[in-house]
Amino acid sequence: MRPNLLNANLIAAAIAALFAADAAPAAEAPASPPLIALHCAHLIDTEAGKLLGESTIVIDGKRIKEVRSGHASVAGAQDIELKDVTCLPGLIDSHTHLTMQFSPSTYSDNFRLNIADYAIRSTVYARRTLMAGFTTVRNVADYANESIALRNAINAGTVSGPRIYTAGKAIGSTGGHADFSDGYRADLAGNPNAKDGIINSPEDAWKAVRQHYKDGADLIKIMPSGGVLDESSSADNAQMTIPEIQAIVAAAHDYGFTVAAHAHGAEAIRRAVIGGVDSIEHGTFMNDEDMKLMKDHGTWYVPTITAGKFVEEKAKQGGWYPPQVAAKAEKVGPIIQATAGKAYKAGVKIAFGTDAAVFPHGDNAREFVYMVQAGMPPMFTIQAATTHAAQLLKHEKDIGSIAAGKFADVIAVPGNPLDDISLMQKVEFVMKEGVVYKQEGNPVAAAAQAERTESRRDIDYGF
Ligand SMILES: [Zn+2]
Predict the structure, then answer these.
(1) What's the CA-to-centroid distance between 457 and ligand 1, angstroms?
(2) How many CB atoms lie within 10 A of CB 244?
């Protein structure tokens, strides 16, 4: 209820610290921020898959100290009352592109905008994503590693946004889905190589992964099949060999990276799973053999139904995509939802992911509605966006549930989302690492957020 008070306390602490430095040695150390007692009318335990009644989440700094049942009073804590809501762990979108957002001008923007333009816009997309309740994203490809800069800025508190685990640039082959020069005239197309994420041999694969390590990526994204929104002719042909994929995976494991594979076509999915990737993204034309292989290998599936629905709609509407892209969108778009339903029934592991950028950032929660339409139970879709996505990221110790020791990432939606999954689109409250970003449906003022950051304190020390 008192986000401004919280921030005011932090500002006061910073000012106290400033004067303490001047007046040393007698001054007291600044008081640590108070505990927060977050009182939720209901709480979803994503680990047990259960809806709990009234609960109190006790937060100490960035992490959850304990979860108590009922409206517990906590000595010395600042109370935040969340009435008539259901609290959930902060959501995780396993497939975003936070530095991109498609529009009817995208294909010509590529010739006008610089990487700094995309980076600045991404700060707005990041904030919208956080306000939609997504406190963590797996960012699976950008233009030129600008998502690494965005991640660093969010971690430093310079801008507000979700916690980002990013793949930096995607890795693919010449003329494939990762090759940004597809469709350009020869003198503009250049000859992108392993340093740019374009590989044509296992040796190139090692170079590309090691370059990502040097560049500061958190994971690897590969493009073993054609894709919809690039200006080449096929959305689903196989574009990487099994030895190339195996080399990527071997190199990635040296550095503790997971590997996400964009793949629409059945053969590309087969190669990626055999090659050892951690997840298949989109998976449009996944067949029974692919699903069996994925279960045998424990490969995750990230469906991105929202992107399929959106590109199908815009291709029909016209004015958004070049003709060959529109043709691919009409072929792929209508299939993904049914594939997701089949994969769920077959028992393939599913993590929530949307491909936000293809559609506007902040609309990520539409995916819940499409997943339920595809035949998945509401609780399963919520677990897909919390515990499952955390496992895919290999960060389940820190995120994915509301439990002692985990990051204090908590959101709230009105009513009961298990009865009406569309309520996931009406997030009223957002806390990330113990800081309130949205309350009673309204963003906490950006200016106040900026006051709590390290960068702001640097400026204060400068006068
Ligand atoms: Zn994508």
Answers:
(1) 37
(2) 25
Ligand 1 centre to CA of 93 (Å) is 12
**Model pLDDT for residues 33-66, shown as the tens digit of each residue:** 689 999 999 999 999 999 999 999 999 999 999 9
Q: How many angstroms is it from 97 CA to the middle of ligand 1? A: 7
Q: Are 372 and 421 in contact (CB under 8 A)?
A: yes
Distance, CA 45 to ligand 1 centroid (Å)? Answer: 29
Class of domain 91-393: alpha beta
- Measure the CA dihedral 363/365/370/373, to 10°: -140
CATH number of 3-89+402-461, picked from 2.30.40.10, 2.60.120.200, 3.40.50.1980, 3.90.1150.10: 2.30.40.10
- Nearest residue to 63 (alpha-carbon basis) of 396, 434, 399: 434
Q: Is the pTM of this model over 0.85?
A: yes
CA–CA gap between residue 455 and residue 451 (Å, rounded): 9
Spell out the alpha helix ranges (H) of 388-451: 389-393, 446-451
